[in-house]
Specification:
Pept_M3A_M3B, Glutathione S-transferase Yfyf (Class Pi), Chain A, domain 2, Neurolysin/TOP_dom2, single chain, 644 residues, alpha+beta, 7% strand, 7 strands, metalloendopeptidase activity
Length: 644
């Protein structure tokens, strides 16, 4: 296995004028291949158990290839027609995937496979495949299967509508130049005054993040944050209500008490009830730290507004920055002078190359033929062998995905196809905030995971294929390298060529610790929102959001906002946003294995690479972590960090 033994190569991308046809053809060819392979399994299944699984693996690889085209290019291609064509491919993928999951004849073939002679990986593929069939409803009656098919197809359309509404609803405020007081000069220079004497500030991240952090004009901050928190409203309120209803019905038809129970069954956490318990546990652990640091913010706010008795989302980032600057001796505007984008990108490649033994070789754009001129492409080698290719699409543009995420272009399968991944972010082209540097390290962690786990025989285990509530742990752990003075010294330099001082980095870490308690409470609010919306039906989502915010966040609701409408994770993560904090607990524990005085220790880094990242989904995440740590994971490291 697999049957194709030629040396795999990268996926040839089209010439600039051919993208529309290429996206359609790539999707249709891979879907046709998947259908053909499945039809062969139905009509004339191989006699050998391993051969049955091999054909199924090839069909799943083809389906994955079509899914990657639909998912990626619907979010990143500059041409709206190409994005729409990719959305159509994604719809076809979901339809075929649903049809396969409800195919009783296909299920009978796979259920009839004799597992007695299979190795551990093949046995796991078979067990997980049969579990997927049962969760799809293959054993339900005809009417129920038909309804499940309808619900699945409707969910795809709603998901695409939800994402499109967020992607295309860029809001803005317009200000006179004097109201930009406090903003970094390079940011001001990049925002020219228009013919009416005004400056436009948008809700895209390169505008809203620095503006809410540095702008001294409280009214302007409040106006922009309000616009940001009403993106895609009211359109997505209706979309969410229908999406939640579809998921509720889907779970009920399969016999689950809620969508959260259905979704959690295949995650580390195991049950919907356990999600609520985890949220409450983290809330309790973080409350003392949260209240302490919030009091510091409120005290600083009262220096400017003596009557203030509360602080909300329009002021938190600004006053947190003031506290860090005035009380913790960290000025983010000074810090950002050390982080020029090009140097950070190269520094990230150098750091991860050294840490994991990887080599990143730039590919000229005329050879890579990417979808936009700003996309940077690199071939990836390990121990002299080319193992994959990555594409970095890191700056904002019209019609592009607004957040930060890693997308697959191809999942690696040994001997069949080379792994390719895409990092999609929205960073400034000049100087970066250190928070953005941390985000870049985090997202790149997903890309490294995707590439290192891309040399398996089974597409099922390729790439970031662990339980979903472990997915963030490797990325959260890689953030630690963006906080280390010795690591940053390798690439963080100001315009005069001066390296970022170690004492400044230590101060930055102390300042970052400020607010971690209220950040955890905010994350638990998001997690509670994600969980509650999928468990309890609410006629008024904004009213329910206000209730949950009052219970879990230490900051009050900002009047007139509807944050749920652009909370993209309500789609992709559904009821499982808790996974960010769950993963962080594990990430802190895994990081405890490293020597903080030598983060590049090859023995520890190599063990982590080989025992966790390179395994993909071949074993349960808890077993991967235990293999690396030599013991089961615990809350101890996380609790200690929170208490520092």
């Amino acid at each position: 296995m697999p049957s194709v033994t030629t040396e795999p190569t990268h996926l040839p991308l089209p010439l600039e004028s051919d993208w529309l046809d290429w996206v359609g053809a790539r999707g249709e060819q891979q879907l046709a291949l998947a259908r053909s392979l499945v039809e062969g399994l139905r009509s004339d299944p191989p006699r050998e158990p391993l051969e049955v699984l091999r054909v199924w693996n090839e069909a799943q690889t083809a389906l994955s290839n079509a899914a990657s085209v639909g998912s990626l290019f619907s979010e990143v291609h500059p041409d709206a027609a190409v994005r729409e064509r990719a959305e159509a491919v994604a719809q076809q993928v979901q339809k075929l995937d649903t049809d396969l999951g409800l195919d009783t004849q296909l299920y009978a073939v796979l259920a009839g496979v004799d597992a007695s002679g299979l190795d551990a990986d093949a046995s796991r593929v078979l067990e997980r495949t049969l579990r997927d069939f049962r969760r799809s409803g293959v054993d339900q009656d005809d009417a129920t299967r038909d309804r499940l098919r309808e619900l699945s197809e409707r969910a795809v359309l709603l998901s695409q509508e939800f994402s499109k509404n967020i992607r295309e609803d860029v809001r803005s405020i317009r200000l006179t130049p004097d109201r930009l007081d406090g903003m970094p000069q390079d940011w001001v220079d990049a925002h020219p005054v228009d013919d009416e004497g005004l400056v436009t500030v948008t809700t895209d991240y390169p505008d809203v993040v620095p503006f809410r952090t540095f702008a001294r004009d409280a009214r302007a901050r409040r106006d922009l944050v309000t616009e940001f928190l009403t993106i895609a409203w009211p359109a997505n309120d209706r979309v969410l209500q229908e999406l939640f209803a579809v998921r509720r019905e889907h779970a009920a038809l399969l016999g689950y008490a809620s969508w959260a129970d259905y979704d959690a069954e295949v995650k580390m956490i195991g049950s919907g009830k356990a999600i609520g318990e985890f949220i409450d546990r983290i809330t309790e652990l973080s409350t003392a730290s949260a209240e302490r640091d919030k009091a510091v913010l409120l005290e600083r706010l009262r220096q400017d507004r003596t009557e203030a008795d509360e602080i909300d989302g329009a002021d938190v980032s600004y006053y947190a920055e003031l506290v860090r600057k005035e009380q913790l001796a960290v000025d983010a505007q000074q810090v950002r002078t050390y982080f020029a984008f090009e140097a950070v990108r190269q520094g990230l490649l150098d750091v991860t190359g050294r840490l994991f033994g990887l080599e990143w070789s730039p590919v000229p754009r005329e050879d890579a033929r990417t979808w936009h001129e700003e996309v940077a492409t690199y071939d990836v080698s390990f121990q002299g062998e080319r193992i994959g290719r990555i594409h970095l699409d890191l700056h904002p543009r019209e019609g592009k995905y607004k957040h930060a995420a890693q997308f697959d272009l191809a999942r690696g399968v040994a001997g069949t196809q080379l792994v390719e991944g895409v990092l999609v972010c929205n960073f400034n082209r000049g100087l970066m905030e250190h928070d953005e540097v941390v985000t870049l390290f985090h997202e790149f962690g997903h890309l490294v995971h995707h590439v290192l786990a891309g040399r398996t025989d089974w597409v099922r285990f390729s790439g970031v294929a662990t339980e979903w509530d472990f997915v963030e742990a490797p990325s959260q752990m890689l953030e630690e390298w963006a906080w280390d003075a010795d690591v940053l010294a390798t690439f963080a330099r100001n315009a005069a060529g001066e390296t970022i001082p170690a004492e400044l980095v230590r101060a930055m870490r102390r300042a970052d610790d400020f607010g971690k308690g209220y950040d955890a409470r905010t994350q638990m609010f998001y997690a509670a929102l994600s969980y509650d919306f999928h468990v309890n039906q609410s006629d008024d989502l904004t009213a329910r959001l206000r209730e949950l915010m009052g219970r879990y966040s230490v900051f009050p609701y900002l009047a007139g906002t509807h944050m749920q409408c652009h909370f993209g994770h309500l789609d992709g993560y559904s009821s499982a946003y808790y996974t960010y904090m769950w993963s962080l607990v594990i990430a802190k524990d895994m990081f405890s294995a490293f020597d903080r005085d030598d983060l590049f220790d090859p023995e520890v880094a190599g063990a982590y690479r080989d025992k966790v990242l390179a395994q993909g989904g071949r074993r349960d995440a808890a077993d991967l972590v235990e293999d690396f740590l030599g013991r089961p994971y615990t809350f101890d490291a996380y609790a200690a960090w929170l208490a520092e």
